[in-house]
C-alpha cells in the first residue's frame, strides 16, 4: 500500500507524535495552518469517511475522545479549536486515509477548509 499515513504509522516516515495508543496516532502537521495544528488518524487504513463501516464506529468515537484530550493537553480546549475532516476530491482530501485536522491557538476566522496539502 502506498499510503502516506500508513507509512507514518509503521514508522518508515518520521512524525512529531503528540499521542499514540494501539488504535490512534496524533502528530503535528508539517505545514501548520494555525499555531496548533495536529492530525488525528486511526492506525487502521480507512480511505475516507465514506468507507467507514459499522464495525469502525467505535474507532471513530475514540478519535473524537482523543481529539478532546489532545485539545486539553495542547491548551486549546477552553479557547476553542476546529476539528475538520475532508472527504473526497472537492473537499481537498489528497491523503486517502481518514483523518481529522485539529486547529487552534488563535482566532481562526472563516476558512473555506483545510486541504490535505497542509498534511
From TrEMBL:
CDD domains: PKCI_related (cd01276)
InterPro entries with a match to the protein in the record: Histidine_triad_HIT (IPR001310), HIT-like (IPR011146), HIT-like_sf (IPR036265)
Record-linked PANTHER family: HISTIDINE TRIAD HIT PROTEIN (PTHR23089)
Protein's name in the database: Histidine triad (HIT) family protein
Residue window of motif Histidine triad motif: 97-101
Location of the HIT domain: 4-113
Domain of life assignment: Bacteria
Amino acid at each position: 500500500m502506498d499510503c502516506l499515513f500508513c507509512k507514518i504509522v509503521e514508522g518508515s516516515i518520521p512524525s512529531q507524535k503528540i499521542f499514540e495508543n494501539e488504535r490512534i496516532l496524533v502528530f503535528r502537521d508539517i505545514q501548520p495552518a494555525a499555531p496548533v495544528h495536529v492530525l488525528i488518524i486511526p492506525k487502521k487504513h480507512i480511505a475516507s469517511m465514506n468507507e467507514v463501516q459499522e464495525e469502525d464506529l467505535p474507532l471513530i468515537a475514540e478519535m473524537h475522545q482523543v481529539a478532546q484530550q489532545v485539545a486539553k493537553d495542547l491548551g486549546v480546549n477552553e479557547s476553542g479549536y476546529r476539528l475538520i475532516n475532508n472527504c473526497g476530491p472537492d473537499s481537498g482530501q489528497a491523503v486517502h486515509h481518514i483523518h481529522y485536522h485539529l486547529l487552534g491557538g488563535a482566532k481562526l476566522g472563516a476558512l473555506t477548509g483545510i486541504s490535505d496539502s497542509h498534511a
